[in-house]
Amino acid sequence: MSDSSWGAPPHAGQAGYWGSTEGGPVQGAAPAGPAYDAPEAQQTRPMPIVPDVPAYGGDQDEDRGAARLGGPSFRDVMYQAGHLPAETQNPEPMPDAPQTPPAPQKKSAGRDLSAAIGVGVGLGVVIIASLFIQKAVFVGVIAVAVVVGLWELTSRLQERKSIKAPLVPLAVGGAAMVVAGYVRGAEGAWVAMALTALAVLVWRMTEPPEGYLRDVTAGVFAAFYVPFLATFVALMLTADDGPWRVLTFLLLTVVSDTGAYAVGWRFGRHKLAPRISPGKTREGLLGAVLFAMAAGALCMHFLIDDGTWWQGLLLGLAVAASATLGDLGESMIKRDLGIKDMGTLLPGHGGIMDRLDSLLPTAPVVWLLMVVFVGSG
């Protein structure tokens, strides 16, 4: 509104907005009698219509102890009455107080590295010692890892999904599968796999039929996922240079995981599969490929009979791909189950299955490429 709508500032003896200076009637109050129609009263403008405001207790009440003023603000009224200078009508907003920038957070590796390194070194000593002292001892190590992995997997399935995959036939059949693969080769492994699946079907018949198909399907999947894939490690061991083949397989898988972890943690910016595993990055995958290919070239040249460096490059590339897919595959299982780790047996690593996730699908890949490159030995 313009200033003229509110009238000029009051003169001495004239009623102001808040009342007469001489104790006269308050402006805006309806005067009694005909004096209101007198010409002198035309100099006094009526109070503007004030829009209704919510009663006390509405959403707008910020201070319930303060009186509400309808219509124009107190500052506008005092300016019209001449009690405030013009520059105070629309004061400049106060600048925002300077905010202290948050302290940069230190990038975390995401796990207990000291515990992870200690457990990893301990496992490496046990594996290498059993691998080169006696092949049969290493077969026993594989069988124990398979049984523990099956226990972790079936326990999580029952806890999170109420899926009762029978552990007893899986554990017995899984250990037998590894031994049969070492003793009788691929044919023995397939026969043991078929018998294990049959044992799962029969064992589950001793319980009520509700959920039978779900439970036996999970049992057959567990038999294939853990012991059958692990059998290819035993198949590698049967060659004359079997311990060196197994060591190459383990080294390439570990180097691939380590390269992906180190490069992804330091340089990772672009997510690889955010819906499956948010921590994995494309830069980490590139690190896995480079590290594995370099390690593969060295291992095939120095450790494997009749191996060449270019075969090692291809082997490293295949290992990086299979290890990454295996890691993502178990991440899908854990995401479906709503868990972070399959177990807590290995401090800094999780459970046995959290270490076998990349090894299991890599074993048949390395076994096959070794046979193609240098024969079954």
Automatic annotation (TrEMBL):
GO molecular function, one term: phosphatidate cytidylyltransferase activity
Membrane topology per record: Multi-pass membrane protein
PROSITE patterns referenced in this protein's UniProt entry, alphabetically: CDS
GO biological process: CDP-diacylglycerol biosynthetic process
Annotated pathway: Lipid metabolism; Phospholipid metabolism; CDP-diacylglycerol biosynthesis; CDP-diacylglycerol from sn-glycerol 3-phosphate: step 3/3
Low complexity: bias regions: 27-41
Localization (cell): Cell membrane
Presence of the UniProt keyword Protein transport in the record: no
UniProt keyword list: Cell membrane, Lipid biosynthesis, Lipid metabolism, Membrane, Nucleotidyltransferase, Phospholipid biosynthesis, Phospholipid metabolism, Transferase, Transmembrane, Transmembrane helix
InterPro entries: PC_trans (IPR000374)
Region (Disordered): 1-72, 85-109
Record field: catalytic activity: a 1,2-diacyl-sn-glycero-3-phosphate + CTP + H(+) = a CDP-1,2-diacyl-sn-glycerol + diphosphate
One GO term describing the cellular component: plasma membrane
EC class of the enzyme, as a word: transferase
Biased composition, class Pro residues, residue ranges: 92-104
Membrane spanning residue stretches: 113-131, 137-153, 165-183, 189-206, 218-238, 244-263, 284-303, 359-376
Domain of life, per lineage: Bacteria
Family in the record: Belongs to the CDS family.
PANTHER family: PHOSPHATIDATE CYTIDYLYLTRANSFERASE
Protein name: Phosphatidate cytidylyltransferase
Species the sequence originates in: Streptomyces actinomycinicus
